[in-house]
Design a protein that fits this description.
- A hairpin with a 4-residue loop joins strand 2 and strand 3 (about 50-55).
- The radius of gyration is 18 Å and the shape is elongated.
- It is built from 3 helices and 4 strands.
- It has a 4-stranded antiparallel sheet.
- It has about 100 residues and is of the alpha+beta class.
Length: about 100
Amino acid sequence: MFVMKKGIKTKKLHINGMSCVSCQNKIELKLRNTAGIQQAKVSYENGTAEIEYDPDILSPQDMIALIQRSGYDASEDGGKTPNIRRAAGILLILVSLYVLLR
């Protein structure tokens, strides 16, 4: 049976930009070696990190910044904004091609 320590919270973050299991391991190691993080499990397949942390020591924004400094995108909301930007970029390219070919 798993018992949570008092004051410890769990947060699920969404990570974009991982291209392999080595990326997963790099992020997981960085998180586990950060003060205030009790446990971290990163999944390359799901693009997520489940983190047990002490909110008195760091916030979800601190964890997101840590992941971003490692070269990856991270968010609490599932990365909806980058997907919209990507779709807008693809649409712009398609419209440009249409105009050029016309």
